[in-house]
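User: Please predict the structure of the protein below. I'd like the answer in structure-token form so I can feed it into my own downstream comparison script.

Assistant: Understood. Taking the following sequence of 179 residues as input:
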Amino acid sequence: MPTAAKIATVAELTEKLQRSNATVVMHYRELKVSEITDLRRKLRANGMGIELKVAKNTLLRIAARNAGKPDLDGIFTGPTAVAFIYGSEPQGAKAVIDAVRAVRKENVKVTGGILGNQVLDAEAVQRLTTMPSREEQLAKLMATFQGPATQLAATLNGAAQKLVYTLVALQEKLQTQAA
């Protein structure tokens, strides 16, 4: 029979999984409680909207199923901490990986993550950190759309200018012939 505390924890984890843009899962085998608290504080203070939560794998699996992400059972193994990223996914993942590297302990490592409903392995989380942010991607897309439109406008403007110059030259020629 589940206790009220476990039911509350599952509800909280479910809500975090649904609300977060991405998550990074890590093992924290050698960390003391004070070091986890320090890591949590660093992630919260960086302004990226990251929240670190330590939970039992069984509760994480139940919460994942409740959140509509049933394929996550494989990444919840060992002593698991989950970093919920509410802001930019690439920048948040980079902040988590940098914080884990700063700990400098061999058994503290990123083991995977979640982006949308897709499960990521540790290598995919590392690749996520090199992606441009959403804003940068939108700016590149807009530049791609704007290029042909600018060329079309210049071409049409050039044709109109040539027509005007031709008409002005014709007017001057007719004026000189009439004089």
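That's the full token string. The longest strand covers residues 108-115.
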